[in-house]
Amino acid sequence: MSTLVRKGNLFSQPGRDGQYPILTVENLSAWYGELQALFDVGFSVNTGEVVSVIGANGAGKSTLLRSITGMMNRGKTAKIEGRIDCQGRRLDKLRTEKIVETGVTMVPEGRMLFQRMTVSENLLVGAHLPRAREMAPEKLEEIFAFFPRLSERKNQPVSQMSGGEQQMVAIGRALMSQPSVILFDELSLGLAPIIVDDIYEKVRQINQSGVTCLVIEQDMRRALDVADYVLVMLEGRIVLDGRPEELSVDAITDAYFGTHEAGGHA
Amino acid sequence: MSDLPFEEAVYWTLIDLANAFLTGTFIGGYYAILSMGLALSFGVMRLVNLAHGEFLIVGAYLSAVILQILPIPPFFVLIVVVPIMFGIGYALQRFLLNHVSVQAMERRGMSANFGLMAPILVTFGLGIFISHLLFAIFATDAMSIKNSLAFSAIRLSMDLSISTLRFIFFLVAIAMLILLQVFLRYSATGRAIRAASDNPTYAALMGIRTDHIFAIALGISLAISGVAGFMIGMTRTFQPFDGPQFILVAFGVVIIGGMNSITGSLVGGILLGIVQVLAGTYFGPSAQLVGGYMLVLAVLAFFREGLFSR
């Protein structure tokens, strides 16, 4: 994927399945000090898809998202090499606040809400970008319609809310920036299964509204359910990828646990 | 007292108490403005600004010098002083303190404790630099801002009165407190300041440029210090090396009110003011400071985080 990539994908080369990717990652390696966490990772996400990344703890999934959102560039100890492109803009040299301007945002693991602020305030901070600020009041009403539960608690500090409600705020906050791509990091972590079902239903609806989603999940079944395409990571590498219907459960399980030498798929 | 008839003794006791509460409360407004900037920079950036006292003195000199050049009514000088102090604060945070901030140190993989130390040392050095710079320019001649209000008082009854200036400062303190709260709560920049103070990494994920936002926060902190410096100049004389005595008051106030609470600085200021005046009334002028710091110690003993800390 090369110099041909231009704004709006007009001139970009077709990627997987002959589609034009919205997000491409090439030869990405990442380090925390001496410790290498990603090895030569490459994949692409087509516009409008849900791509799931599954893998065990420490497989490098979160590091991958941190790399895409520029959080590995913030410290002196962490660094990345390789290339990340989104909608014709190169992300790997940008700072987080600039990356968000290109239309990528993240629902981080552990929600990471602004604890001293109310639900409404957290959502409004999500619309800090100039492009989102003007539409913030309308967008806020949209989010409240999407998550009626938040509407009832809009003036409550988020610290007093349940994990599921906090997850809704985190998703709503990401939507407020009017993104084209949302990265979801471990949505199900610490939540009751029935709430996770609801949350994933919302992810599906967000995707149907035209937002491309990259979902990181330890729960293999949920990741496969929601995905158009699946990447399995093990020890910092992508060891298997393909459409969920093309991959056998055995192959995924082997790749997930590293119990068998799994071959890369297409 | 014992020679007085009983009724008269009761009357004077009540007058003393009323006077202490009244004067203390109004001094509290002045104390609040002295310390609001310190509470803001600590609350937002976890910056213990040891140069805070020197910045107050810079505000005082700036006001006095401009008033010597421009023949305008004293209060109008704030129209010039506030933006200049904001600019100094913005530049200072953007080009110096952001590079040694707690957050910058954490990014470099240093422990939080070490991260706190670096800005303390830098602002300590900055304070010494500023006071010597002022000394080089103005020498040690005591300066003040001449004004007709300095000796004016509002008489409430035959035996009760309050200083007009202190009364005005009190109103200014309340106005500034309300303005600051409205700004932090309802403006996009204010919310960005609060988000960045809560979690700078994830504030960046919202598109917030934390280095710019922190610079605005120190700009506001110094703008408030500019107002405070003007008030110092209006009520007393000042010299280049007067900074430390004011930072002691400011620290006292924020310890009582809560290190990161702006509302706490008004309550802390009032409590400190009342205790100081009471101690002065009953135990003599030298007891004023001791009384104030005993309150600080008592608050530290029973409310480790201050009364209004979040």
Measured as a percent range, the helix fraction of chain A is 25-40%
What is the overall number of helices of chain B? 12
What is the rounded distance between the termini of chain A? 16 Å
Report the average pLDDT across residues of chain B.
Answer: 91
Which SSEs are present, and which pair or pack?
The complex is a heterodimer of chains A (266) and B (310).
Chain A: E1 21-32, E2 35-46, E3 50-54, H1 61-68, E4 78-86, E5 89-90, H2 96-101, E6 104-107, H3 119-126, H4 130-133, H5 136-146, H6 148-152, H7 163-176, E7 181-185, H8 193-208, E8 212-217, H9 220-226, E9 229-234, E10 237-242, H10 249-257
Parallel strand pairs in A: 3-8, 3-9, 6-7, 7-8
Antiparallel strand pairs in A: 1-2, 1-4, 4-5, 9-10
Helix pairs in contact in A: 3-7
Chain B: H1 6-45, H2 52-69, H3 78-95, H4 102-107, H5 112-138, E1 153-155, E2 161-163, H6 164-186, H7 188-198, H8 200-204, H9 210-235, H10 243-257, H11 262-283, H12 287-302
Antiparallel strand pairs in B: 1-2
Helix pairs in contact in B: 1-6, 1-9, 1-10, 1-11, 2-3, 2-5, 2-9, 2-10, 3-9, 6-7, 7-9, 10-11, 10-12, 11-12
Give me a quick take on this structure.
The complex is a heterodimer of chains A (266) and B (310). Chain A has 266 residues and is an alpha/beta fold. Chain A contains ten helices and ten strands.
